[in-house]
């Protein structure tokens, strides 16, 4: 089973007021989803975001955003540059692939040499 992890792309401290406690300790974070498995590491194109208050600890959802927060969010959203979607194979994948190819080659050699007959 592959593990999913959200990795931070960009974090920014905002100077806007929190709609809950009216404090100016808001943090905007953008995340990109990564999947880690035994055979691969996959970077997906899925981007998520979160605005969180440092004082009261509440997450500010889009329904409570003010016009200023929407403008700031749009500005920072244009600035982010996520990693390209890719898949990287692990060493275990390559070891198993080489073992499989060696097994197939050994079987083909044994068949062609007449050691194995079907």
Order of helix and strand elements from N to C terminus:
EEEEHEH
User: Roughly what fraction of the amino acids lie in strands?
Assistant: 35-45%
Q: Regions with pLDDT < 50 over 5+ consecutive residues?
A: none
Could you tell me the radius of gyration in angstroms?
A: 25 Å
Write down the overall geometry.
rod-shaped
What's the number of helices? 2
Kindly name the structural category.
alpha+beta
Helix content: 25-40%
Please state the average pLDDT score. Answer: 91
Sheet of most strands:
5 strands, antiparallel
Number of strands: 5
The N- and C-terminal alpha carbons lie at a distance of 38 Å
Describe this structure in words.
The chain is α+β, with helices and mostly antiparallel strands and 118 residues long. Helices cover 31% and strands 36% of the residues. It has helices at 67-79, 91-113, and strands at residues 3-14, 26-36, 40-53, 59-60, 86-89. Strands 1, 2, 3, 4 and 5 form a five-stranded antiparallel beta sheet that branches. The longest helix has 23 residues, at 91-113. It starts with a strand and ends in a 5-residue tail after the last helix. The relative contact order is 0.18.
